[in-house]
C-alpha cells in the first residue's frame, strides 16, 4: 500500500497567522500612539479610522488566502483518493467532480465568514475600549482641574493604557466560551477547515467512483484519535458491513479541531474486522 502523507499546511497557515500578528501589532502601535493624557473625540476617531484600514487590509488578505488554499486542500484530498485507489492521475491538477465543486464553494464562503468574524470582533473591542478611554480621559482631566491637579494621575493613565492594550491582547471568545489570541484562533480555524475540506474532497471523489469504504490514517497519535487509527469506516451511512459511518464518529475522539487524521478510500474492506 502506498504511503499517504498527512498534509499539515504549516507553511501556508504560518503566512496567514503572521498577517494576523502583524495587523495586531500595528493596531497596538496605533493605540500606543494615542495621547491618553488628553484624548479628544477627534483624535480617537482618527485612530479608529486607522484601525479600520488595517483590518480591512487584513480582511482582503485573508479572503485571498482562503480562495487559494481551501481549493488546494480539496485537490490534495482528491489526489489522496486517487492514490489510495491506485488510479493514475494524468493531469497535474485533478478536476473537481460536481459534489466537490459545490463543497469547495461552500467551504471557501464558510471559512471567509469565520475569519471575517475574527476581525469584526477585534474591531468591536478596540472601538469600545477607545470610546471608554476617551470618556474617562476627558472626565479625569475635568476632575483634575476641580481637585487642583495639573494632570491626570499616573495610576489613571496606566489604567487607560492597559484598557486599550487589553482590547487586542486578551483575545476573542469562541462559541464554547474559550478565550483565544486572534492569531491562535485563526490558526485553529484554518487548520480545521483545511482538514475537513481535505477529507470531504476524498470522500466525494471516492463515492463518485462507487467506493463506499475507507480507512483512517495512522501516525501514532497520543490523543483519543489513537483508538481510531487504522479503523475501517463507511463513507455513506447505508453501505453494508460492520463499520461505523464516518459522519457518526465522536468528534471528541477523532477529526477534532487541529486533528491531522485523514481517510483513505478502499473498494473492499476486509470482511473479518
Ligand atoms: Zn486525529
From TrEMBL:
This is Phage minor capsid protein. InterPro entries: Phage_A118_VSP1.
Amino acid at each position: 500500500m502506498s504511503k499517504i502523507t498527512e498534509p499539515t499546511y504549516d507553511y501556508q497557515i504560518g503566512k496567514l497567522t503572521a498577517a494576523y500578528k502583524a495587523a495586531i501589532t500595528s493596531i497596538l502601535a496605533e493605540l500606543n500612539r494615542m495621547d491618553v493624557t488628553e484624548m479628544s473625540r477627534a483624535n480617537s476617531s482618527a485612530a479608529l479610522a486607522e484601525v479600520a484600514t488595517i483590518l480591512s487590509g487584513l480582511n482582503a488578505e485573508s479572503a485571498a488566502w482562503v480562495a487559494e488554499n481551501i481549493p488546494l486542500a480539496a485537490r490534495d484530498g482528491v489526489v489522496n483518493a486517487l492514490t489510495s485507489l491506485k488510479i493514475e492521475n494524468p493531469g497535474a491538477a485533478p478536476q473537481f467532480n460536481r459534489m466537490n465543486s459545490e463543497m469547495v464553494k461552500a467551504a471557501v464562503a464558510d471559512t471567509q465568514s469565520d475569519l471575517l468574524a475574527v476581525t469584526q470582533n477585534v474591531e468591536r473591542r478596540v472601538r469600545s475600549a477607545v470610546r471608554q478611554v476617551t470618556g474617562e480621559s476627558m472626565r479625569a482631566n475635568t476632575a483634575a482641574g476641580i481637585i487642583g491637579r495639573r494632570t491626570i494621575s499616573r495610576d489613571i493613565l496606566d489604567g487607560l493604557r492597559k484598557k486599550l492594550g487589553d482590547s487586542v491582547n486578551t483575545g476573542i471568545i469562541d462559541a464554547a466560551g474559550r478565550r483565544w489570541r486572534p492569531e491562535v484562533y485563526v490558526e485553529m480555524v484554518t487548520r480545521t477547515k483545511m482538514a475537513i475540506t481535505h477529507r470531504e474532497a476524498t470522500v466525494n471523489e471516492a463515492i463518485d467512483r462507487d467506493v463506499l469504504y475507507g480507512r483512517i490514517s495512522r501516525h501514532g497519535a497520543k490523543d483519543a484519535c489513537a483508538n481510531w487509527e487504522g479503523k475501517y469506516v463507511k463513507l455513506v451511512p447505508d453501505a453494508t458491513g460492520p463499520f461505523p459511518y464516518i459522519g457518526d464518529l465522536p468528534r471528541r475522539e477523532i477529526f477534532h479541531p487541529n486533528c491531522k487524521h485523514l481517510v483513505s478510500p478502499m473498494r473492499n474492506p476486509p470482511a473479518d474486522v
